[in-house]
Amino acid sequence: MAETHEDTPKETVHKEEEEEDQSFEELGVDARLLRALIKKRIEKPTPIQRVAIPLILEGKDVVARAKTGSGKTLAYLLPLLQKLFTANSDRKKLAPNAFVLVPTRELSQQVYAEVKSLVELCRVQLKVVQLNSNMLANDLRAALAGPPDILISTPACVAKCLSCGVLQAASINASLETLVLDEADLLLSYGYENDIKALTPHVPRSCQCLLMSATSSADVDKLKKLILHNPFILTLPEVGNHKDEVIPKNVQQFWISCPASDKLLYILAVLKLGLVQKKVLIFTNTIDMSFRLKLFLEKFGIRSAVLNPELPQNSRLHILEEFNAGLFDYLIATDLSQSKEKDEVPKESIVGSRKSRKHAKIKLDSEFGVVRGIDFKNVYTVINFEMPQSVAGYVHRIGRTGRAYNSGASVSLVSTDEMDTLEEIRSFVGDDENKGTNSIAEFPLLTKNAVESLRYRAEDVAKSVTRIAVRESRAQDLRNEILNSEKLKAHFETNPKDLDLLKHDKILSKNAPPPHLRDVPEYLLDKPTKEAREMVKLARDAMGNNNRRKGSKRKLRKEGDPLKAIYATASSKRPHKARKTGGSDSLNSSDRHKHKKNKGI
Ligand SMILES: Nc1ncnc2c1ncn2[C@@H]1O[C@H](COP(=O)(O)OP(=O)(O)OP(=O)(O)O)[C@@H](O)[C@H]1O
């Protein structure tokens, strides 16, 4: 390890404002990487990059804790690549010189894509491989022949390579120069402890070890003790066990109180009336709920894709790529860390046959994870259609927006049953009615009238999305994706840019959505809703197509986010008190009534 003496670790807490103007060049980043960063339009280092890059370049072991979306990946990749660019080419190489271990395949794919693009932009000859534990021993052996410079994988896969002799312990000991454990706070909870323990005895003492994490936890401490020797511990001030420490400041958080039975109606109102900014990532706690929501929304002309662990890996990766490339605006992701479905799903969801339902089970992909670490691009709004069951779950879900210098918003739909969770989260973020602190505010743009104007249509359509319809479309989607998966694999190996070959936001309903539900007639909307919709639209235009346009980020930083101003104006007109029941604009279930005049819609 880089620092082998056993004295007390050097813990450094850095202030975000410190040396804010330092450039990548001033941090000592290589000219080839600087050019690559310019091409990627990455202008200046984030706080964690400012502090971690020089230390890693010096060869120190580092534990870096920084909030979600703060740029931890480049914080270790830039110095790692630089080290490999400048390494002596005559040195011994019996195994990869660098291992990057991550908890999920999605993350492994994401890191791989980032490394590949940097290497290509730098025009340097480095071989990078990404392996997963589903691969056959022969494929693993072929991929490791050479051997490559960098291996990106999960700990389970490395353990498999060791146990089947594809990687030799002695070769690792002779060649490994850098070991990165990314999303370290998650590795143990994903059950990789034994896999990591199988590797650590073979990690040479000269190997530089880096541990990246969004939160500090007992698991991180355990890993630290297992692998690192007297590391530099970098803690950005906003990281730790408290509110500002883990939730990016550029994410505005809202909640809406609504009965569980009205959730479809409320999300319809929020999306259909254009009250939130796109792209939108919606979280559910079960796969069935994600299909119910998809079927429901598509009747109103809102097309979405679903992402869950029962889909084949190629499909999941392709869905993420399409969403990141902006091919569709709504993605419904199932966060099974919150659910009983975690371990298994009935096989009926694949075969759809009654006969096989009782016994057959398929295993969900245990290396799947959409909440942690995945870098969804340009997501402005995260919606908790169902609340996560823990504060950590909440933090990581909303961390999918507001990444790097972007801004974002989260909206949680909270039923009476979920109020305790909300209270727990609010107390974690330091909200206190008595002190007037209110980081999670009631969503100010949705009025009671707006919700009620859609009630008749929504309830009618919700009834048509039966359990059987949900089951059938889930099975249909899975069948399609299994068929597509092989095609995708073959096709994208040769045409990596051909993203829209298979669109994932296809309509699943048997009957085409009725045209009259696509648009909300103007006469149904009250004045505040029309104003709110117009303001969100104007803000979108002002923001330059949802944070996407070149130069818009800098402009936004300077002028402020127009959506924040809108939410603030609207909020200031409404009371912010969190109540156990009731919600925005006095949307109490008690005084909710059907609009008779809607019957004719
Ligand atoms: N210096 C920078 N300037 C602008 N954007 C950046 C910078 N560094 C990284 N990014 C972008 O910020 C986004 C988030 O980065 P990254 O995925 O590394 O965050 P993270 O800290 O690993 O988050 P998480 O804990 O959720 O995994 C990525 O899209 C990345 O390209």
From TrEMBL:
Catalytic function, reaction form: ATP + H2O = ADP + phosphate + H(+)
Motif Q motif positions after renumbering to this chain: 22-50
Compositionally biased tracts (Basic residues): 547-557, 592-601
Keyword flag Hydrolase: yes
Cellular-component GO terms for this entry: cytosol
A Pfam family annotated for this UniProt entry: DEAD
Domain of life per record: Eukaryota
Ranges where the record places region Disordered: 1-24, 539-601
Helicase C-terminal domain boundaries: 269-451
Annotated Helicase ATP-binding domain residues: 53-234
The name this protein goes by in its record: RNA helicase
Species this chain originates from: Glycine soja (Wild soybean)
